[in-house]
Amino acid sequence: MEPADALSSPGIRPPRGILAAVDEPEPDPIILPIEDSLDLHAFAPRDVRSVVADYLAEARARGFREVRLIHGKGRGTRRAIVRSVLARHPAVIEFFDGPPERGGWGATVVRLRP
Question: Span 78-103, mean pLDDT?
């Protein structure tokens, strides 16, 4: 029996999505403009860590000294991920909740080293 036949044999089912994951190419990267804020609602929690790290590097390279990361108020998952990245990031001087007019605790303001 060929390996492909084993996956399609009666009674043997691959985990859902396994064939699609093998056959589909990697999605193209998303290109975002670098501004003084980044809304993380569009990103899955599993991607937030790398998105934030890449964004901070680009923002700093473009001369931003303060940025705002909008993670939302929800359950706090994105906020916790963002804060864990910021706590260890060498370019971060400090971070804190946004003021009420800039998102309150649904956003984190970050001050970056020059």
Answer: 96
The pair of three-digit structure tokens given for residue 101, joined into one six-digit string: 């007019």
Which residue, 66, 107, 65, 99, is CA-closest to 83?
Answer: 107
Is-contact 93 113, C-beta < 8 A? yes
When mean pLDDT is compared across 15-19, 64-68, 87-91, the lowest value belongs to: 15-19
Residue showing tokens 């060929």: 2
CB 30 within 8 A of CB 44: no
Q: Which domains does the chain have, with CATH numbers?
A: 37-112 (3.30.1370.110)
> The pTM is what?
0.73
Amino acid making up residue 50:
S
Is the pLDDT at 3 greater than 60, yes or no? no
Of 112, 65, 114, 108, the residue nearest 93 (C-alpha): 112
Phi and psi angles of residue 89, each rounded to the nearest 5 degrees, phi first: -80, 125
